[in-house]
Amino acid sequence: MPEKINVVIWNENVHEREQGPVGDFIRQYYPHGIHEYLKSVLDAEDLNITAVSLDMPEQGLPDALLNQTDVLLWWGHCAHDRVDDALV
Hints:
With 88 residues, the chain is an alpha/beta fold. Helices cover 26% and strands 22% of the residues. It contains three helices and three strands. It has helices spanning 21-29, 34-42, 63-67, and strands spanning 5-11, 47-53, 71-75. Strands 2-1-3 form a three-stranded parallel β-sheet, with helices on one face. The N and C termini lie far apart (34 Å).
């Protein structure tokens, strides 16, 4: 069997954690964040998928993870200014 493709799904995970009507609405569809939802629906035998988010240490993308990533799916919406320039 060929090597798996290493996919990282990055999400701001901001709206999913909001308190109030917006967060409540989004959590109806993405209770663990859209990054975890995408990981579950894209799951395939030839993919090794990691779901991470802005609120994690090193904004979810430490060098060790990035260095082994073949495909990076970046899901951003409202927190672009919170991402460290060095990470970008």
